[in-house]
Prior knowledge:
This protein has 199 residues and is mainly alpha-helical. It has two domains: 1-101, no CATH class; 120-199. It contains eleven helices and three strands; from the N terminus they run ααβααββααααααα. It has helices at residues 3-18, 25-34, 38-45, 49-57, 81-86, 89-97, 103-114, 126-141, 151-167, 173-178, 184-195; strands spanning 36-37, 66-67, 73-75. It has a three-stranded antiparallel β-sheet with strand order 1-3-2. A hairpin with a 5-residue loop joins strand 2 and strand 3 (73-75). The termini are far apart.
Amino acid sequence: xxxxxxxxxxxxxxxxxxxxxxxTEDDDAYVSAQFAVLEQVCARHxxxxxxxxxxxxxxxxxxxxxxxxxGAEMVPADLFALADEAGxxxxxxxxxxxxxxxxxxxxxxxxxxxxxxxxxxxxxxPATIRRKDHLTGAITAAVNEPDAGSARWSERLxxxxxxLDALEPAFTGYDRLRFGGPTSRDRCVDAVRDRxxxx
Length: 199
């Protein structure tokens, strides 16, 4: 299959998942600083870009995190790290889903991973995915804790927020369009720090 067909198919799949939203100059600058062009990552790892695009279309590797406005497929620099740790692409799904005791939850997280939308983490691994879920849940629930507002509560809350802050990048305007509203950083880091300043 000609490369142009694979590029077009991958772009089409990306837009099916993310919708059609414009990338601004600021979006492009953010993405270029945080992610890498697929061809460059493939060159560094001795991989054929067309073969990698096929794996993405076959739901064996995640879609690009972004399509830059020039059409460049932007991926994490460590795109192949999980497959390498699993012992190869053919073992990745079983290795990945085994990190969740509940099979349905593992399958849901695998689908989310394949979407390429885990741009909310500097490093996408089962461990960081699970930790992010725990942190966002704990931060959201904190306002209902019996000692909410106390100094000890504030210390616990800000420790959680600081840990989430370290896991997550800044996000960009495009993310708020494709996710249909505020990001987890907006809700669980920035808004919480504004509402509950450190003592």
